[in-house]
Amino acid sequence: MTTTHYKSEQKGHLYIVGPTLEILALSCTNLKEAAYTSGIEYSNFLKACKMENDIRISTYQKCAAESLGKDVLIIHLPCGIIDSLTAPKVHFKNRYETIEQRELVTLFRELKLDEKIQIEEFMKTLHKLSIKNKIETI
Q1: What is the pLDDT of residues 18-42, one digit of tens each?
Q2: 20 to 30 A from 68, CA-CA: which of 40, 58, 117, 130?
Q3: What torsion, rounded to 10 degrees, do the Cα atoms 10, 15, 19, 24 define?
């Protein structure tokens, strides 16, 4: 008995707040060393950063954290809310879309995730931590 697979229209989207892994990788001074650090073969590392194929979250995390020094934050939001509040750009074969960091701040402000959290302070703290981590690694 054969199983019929039906293609359903994609209901949700994957949004990445810029810069993307590809841009981060291209700005690397030694891309081969970054790939080696992540434990992923060089050409597969490039494909993963470009997100040419569907990749596992663990692969994304390896590329981001181990070789490019970035953490990954995943937030689940109601479908359509990001499109209604930002202007996402579609990328490679509609696999994902990107929004700018300033749009993320606007999104948080509009969602009022928690009245106690001051979004600007949160983003400033993240930025300070990012700079501190860069200095510590030098």
Answers
A1: 888 888 888 888 889 988 988 889 9
A2: 117
A3: -60
